[in-house]
Design a protein that fits this description.
The protein is α/β, with parallel strands linked by helices. The chain has a single domain (2-202), classed as TIM Barrel. The chain is built from 8 helices and 5 strands, in the order αβαβαβααβαβαα. Strands 3-2-1-5-4 form a 5-stranded parallel beta sheet, with helices on both faces. Bound molecules: zinc ion (ZN). The site of zinc ion has 5 residues, from loops.
Length: 203
């Protein structure tokens, strides 16, 4: 549904999962600010501890903060109630960092998998479940050309792209995320396509 909305509005929605990362997220914020663009961050609760300042910075700069759970549990491989508790714990970690009490945030299931209990729970709470349409390939064994997203922006138009902003020991992957974000933003500008957050797209 989100993908269809992105295609309809010919919008580029940049999403980043599994962060925040101490170095990479901070660098991405600079790249995004340079283009005055907003992105959406699906944070992992366990990565928030010690990086609360970064979470606040993301919010202050007007980006979308969403959740990717606490511990990146594959919800088909753990008990349904453990998966559900993990969703709530992920939300609580964001609220604790921001000092807010929103209690729920749009959710992207780790590995793209949801069990039926979690699914019903999210539907009951009217929490948007957010997938993606284009994977940047930043976690693949062989990282592709950093122009991959940019080329697809030019070729296919509206999209929800996926990259990851947790810190890597592999510097080429960190560089890849930065470069592909930069080139995607340049392509959107060239094509006159709006760069929107998930919540802007749903407005
Ligand atoms: Zn993930």
């Amino acid at each position: 549904m989100l993908r269809r909305k992105a295609v309809e509005s010919n919008a580029v929605v940049l999403t980043f999962d599994d962060g925040p990362g101490s170095r990479l997220t901070t660098e991405l914020l600079i790249v995004l600010a340079e283009s005055k663009a907003k992105a959406t961050f699906f944070m992992l609760g366990r990565n928030i501890a010690g990086r609360e300042v970064i979470v606040k910075q993301i919010a202050q700069q007007g980006h979308d903060i969403c959740s990717h759970g606490y511990d990146h549990l594959h919800s088909w491989k753990v008990s349904p109630f453990r998966a559900l508790a993990d969703i709530r714990r992920g939300w609580a970690a964001i609220d604790a960092a921001l000092g807010t009490g929103r209690r729920k945030y749009p959710f992207r299931p780790p590995n793209g998998k949801l069990n039926i209990i979690s699914l019903l729970y999210l539907i009951f709470l009217q929490v948007p479940i957010v997938y993606w349409s284009i994977d940047s390939g930043d976690t693949w064994r062989d990282i592709p050309n950093s122009d991959r997203i940019a080329l697809l922006v030019k070729k296919t138009g509206g999209m929800v792209s996926l990259a990851h902003d947790f810190d890597r020991s592999d510097d080429s992957r960190r560089q890849f995320v930065i470069e592909s974000t930069r080139s995607a933003l340049a392509a959107a500008k060239e094509k006159n396509m709006p760069v929107l957050t998930v919540s802007e797209l749903f407005k």
